[in-house]
Amino acid sequence: MTRRLTRGRVLLTVVVLLAFAALVVLTLGATRTDRPLDPDSPGPSGARALSAVLQEHDVQVEVVRTIDGLEDADVDAETTVVVSATEMLSPGHAERVPALSRGAARLVLLEASPLVLERADVPVTVGPGTGGSIPADCTGAPSLAAGIVRHGDEVEAPSLLYSPARGTRVGRCFDADDSGAEGSALVVVPEHARQPETVLLAATTTLSNRDITDADHAGLGVRLLGASDRLVWYSPSLADLAADEEHVAPPRWLVPAMTLLGMVIVLVAVQQGRRLGPLTPEKLPVVVHSVETTRSRAALYRRAGDRARAARVLRAATDARVRARLGLSERGHPQSVVAAAASASGLSPGDVHDRLFGPPPGTDATLIQLAHRLTALEEGVRTP
To answer: Which CATH number applies to 34-236: 2.60.40, 3.40.1130, 3.40.50, 3.30.40?
Structure first.
């Protein structure tokens, strides 16, 4: 039994350790490609399809995942910079993006949030998207979007709509005509001293792997991101977010560490846990002294205050012993017991009847007195 138990513990320990090793490999070794519009993600919300198409069009796609990587990318006039996964872009890094992209031919912000637009100093507000198909119909300064949008292009159900500040010179395309939504799916802000031409696109439902083949999304994506021979695709990572002193994110090792701690606790519990041993049989019958039973039952009756039941038990026991002493049947009439006991003990029949079959005692003192009288009756029967 001990050998079998030890073998089972060893097997369980090995299984848990293997499971932990697999979890660590998956957590630390896997490439983070699960974010929307990630150029390495093959999932429905990723953008690997667009990245592959751009490379087929001889566009050099360089993916960076940190703000330092963007700074080291040597952006020049033959480079387009695109920023996706803006939910992972910290406020401090959002401020640095326009400056680091200043020398680029174009800066593209995909699915830019209000915080990113504010920190990047882009005079545009964000509103909810709309359903249905929206034609190009560029307005404002349509020449700004001439190389991006073609007449007759359409997009399906943009996730966001952008509204430029009043008086701002911008190009707007894919304007929503829904009464419940206002804005454009694509906005082009001209270059100025602090940043290059900046394009905002509601891209989650436009450039993702799931939606790239709908409407004119593929052509729009290639023209927008493939205008230059080189594309620097900045997709911020969790580590990049944690590196910003203004935004403290949990370290990457936190989840594996907590998992390891939990498994260690389980292993310690398995190792220290003690299995109950086999049942020890007890020799039967078990001898219980009558006095112990009597005292226990008396304590129960006393706690319950049931004097009537206690009196019945005492009288029944005395009746049984008297019958056995006098050789009477257990089913004999009570009067025969009374007559025989009175004759044997010298007591009157009325007294014997009162002791054996009288009314229940009303107090503890009466119950004690009855017990003494029954004992005296048994003694009288034994020694007439």
So the answer is: 3.40.50
